[in-house]
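To illustrate the input format used throughout this study, we show a single complete record. The first block contains the structure-token representation of the backbone; no residue identities are included at this stage. The design step must infer an amino acid for every position from geometry alone.
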């Protein structure tokens, strides 16, 4: 059976920037092992599979795979899949939509479509879970994971800690952008430090010119991803924490997160946090996506 796929670069407005994503359309009939094999074949940070929704009022059920495993939620797969799904639907004669709802393992993901001259060019999703805080690690351990010195890790705002709004990351702040540039993953230390605390990825960042601008990198060699050009789920968890630490009880903030610079795949992630009565209630992540390739592959049903 022939199946359609589309690849897009996400969190960028130009081809060969941002984070590549493969979207497999009409994926019903594929089993988990086949989906995992297809994701390994594409070898992108993630590949998504679009299935009919379980609830008719929702837009689609979406499964997300890295080259090695299925994940319950991720950032750039939601933005890229939303753009591909909406464009395909409208190309087939469907009425234009402003919003989508994806069913994912982590929960429902509401999505607002971004249009320019009636064409869908991007999307903004709302994280499916509120921020949860996990284990801490020492500055020495995170520094060793990143081939840095302990003095390169800032403890001023928070310790290196596992954060999640649907997918867990060990998040750490570096003292300078130079330290962020020098970071490189040490896979053996990742293997020692990360699995016991329930994650396989490190998201490190430092502030930019303003308190609402960040520069970031993400490493996950244990999942076959040496470095990720744009990580919306980690960005969402990080800005949720930073907004929660602000003294204001009611606050709406906009954020700009730069990633992929050191890889030559410059990405820009837009974020919004909503805080009510001292708690962050919603985190939104958005950006653009551009189509790169489309095609067919032959694979029998399971």
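Output of the design step:
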């Amino acid at each position: 059976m022939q199946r359609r796929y589309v690849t897009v670069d996400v969190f960028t407005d130009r081809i060969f920037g941002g984070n590549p994503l493969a979207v497999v359309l009409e994926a019903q009939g594929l089993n988990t092992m086949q989906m995992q094999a297809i994701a390994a074949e594409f070898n992108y940070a993630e590949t998504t599979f679009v299935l009919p929704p379980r609830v008719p009022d929702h837009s689609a059920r979406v499964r997300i795979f890295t080259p090695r495993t299925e994940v319950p939620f991720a950032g750039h797969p939601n933005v890229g899949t939303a753009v591909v799904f909406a464009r395909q639907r409208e190309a087939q004669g469907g009425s234009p939509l402003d919003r989508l709802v994806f069913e994912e393992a982590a929960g429902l993901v509401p999505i607002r479509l971004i249009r320019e001259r009636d064409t869908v060019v991007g999307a903004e999703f709302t994280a499916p879970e509120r921020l949860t805080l996990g284990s801490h690690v020492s500055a020495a351990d995170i520094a060793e994971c990143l081939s840095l010195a302990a003095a390169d890790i800032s403890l001023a705002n928070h310790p290196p800690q596992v954060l999640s709004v649907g997918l867990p990351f060990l998040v750490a702040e570096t003292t300078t952008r130079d330290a962020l540039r020098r970071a490189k993953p040490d896979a053996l230390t990742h293997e020692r430090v990360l699995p016991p605390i329930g994650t396989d990825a490190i998201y490190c960042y430092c502030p930019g010119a303003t308190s609402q601008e960040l520069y970031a990198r993400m490493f996950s060699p244990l999942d076959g991803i040496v470095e990720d050009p744009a990580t919306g789920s980690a960005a969402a968890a990080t800005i949720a924490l930073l907004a929660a630490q602000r003294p204001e009880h009611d606050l709406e903030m906009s954020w700009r997160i730069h990633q992929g610079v050191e890889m030559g795949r410059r990405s820009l992630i837009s974020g919004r946090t909503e805080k009510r009565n001292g708690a962050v209630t919603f985190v939104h992540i958005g950006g653009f996506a551009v189509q790169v390739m489309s095609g067919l592959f032959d694979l029998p049903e399971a």
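Structural context for interpreting the output: The mean pLDDT is 96. Helices lie at 32-42, 75-91, 139-145, 177-182, 187-193, 232-244.
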